[in-house]
Amino acid sequence: MIIRCVAVLAVLFLSGVVFAGPLPMASPEDAGFSAEGLSRIDSFFVKEIAGNRVPGAVIAIARDGKLVYHKAYGYLDKAKGVPMPLDAIFAYASMTKIMTSVAALTLTEAGKLPLQSNLSDYYPAFAEMKVGVIGTDGKLRLEPQKRPIFIHDLFRHTSGLTYGGRGGDNPISKLYPGGTEPAFEGSTSDFINRITKLPLAYQPGVAFEYSFSADVLGAVVEKVSGKSLGAYLAEHVWRKLNMVDTTFQVSPDKQARLAQPFPNNPLDGKPQDIPVIRKQTTFDCGGACGLGTVGDYLRFGQMLMNGGILDSERILSPQTVAFMTANHLGPEIQNNVAVVEPHREGYGFGLGVAVRMNPGIASVPGNVGEFTWNGAYGTGFFADPKEKLVVVFGTAAPGELRKYYREQVQDLVYGAMTR
After folding, report:
1. Are 344 and 332 contacting, i.e. CB atoms less than 8 angstroms apart?
2. Which of 283, 294, 309, 316 minimizes the number of CB atoms within 10 Å of its CB?
């Protein structure tokens, strides 16, 4: 099996020579990497694929705006024996949130979406939502909001909204749908109508609670712009950055490039699925429904690293990007970032991204100012301004292994650096 994987890798590495890269190329040595160090990434994924822990992967590393490493491993579809191409299309999942935040910030820059404006100015039903409180008797009671939900709260997940299935036996979380579930059930309006009938898990502005906040932010973008979120992103971000495969609905001619997961979780044998690659969503959910290639997302990340510009196309101002990638969780806000990302101790949260606040504490290497977020189906992104480093990886690993790959990729990338 290992021999077969190595053979597949050889073919894929060769194909990478003629693949139009997402950024200009630089040699590893010129970019401050060792070839030996980068080869450890190869060895790691060869072993993981040979062990049937993940079907395949695509990894891209850029430094100083140059592409240092861009390789594909294993299989796009293991059952059919289809090798993984560099332009495989992955479900970005929660990496969609960062793109939604950028879309919203373009409106903020245009004077159309102040962060301190009330969410109810755009969708009045949010003003009527109550806050769920669990009494000592275990019963749920409802209290009024002590202050309105602001647009700022949507960016930083302090709205009081939550996701279904979070918080163990929390009865409030059990009332919410899970992840992408609402995206297959109707329109944006249907989603808003459903969410606003539920109780909030916290008072607005009290705690970072990972949630449908980005989906609601996407709905606000639609309300302000008069366009679907996908149409707005295509016009103001994706086409400008030449992100040719990024979308909410994959066209029929590209569906053969969708990365497929194993039908069963390799850790426990239970069935697993990535719904957004199996069927089309009915609205553009800004929290988890985007799809695209690792190369596309690397260009998006490089735009942020460059202070909002890439190839002469400006998306945001440098000041807005600095504001976006600063910590927005003040000392009065309960920081639960590490509950979502177990290796993210010492991180705060900005406008759609986790932000590293300490050189230590976290279980991965990095520098203060690193900004990052990952996807529940096995994708990951981090950018380190001090090192001028941008890393994106894609796997079709929707189970708990995705968290293992997030940590290991960061360890491997920093471990390969020589300066």
Report:
1. no
2. 309
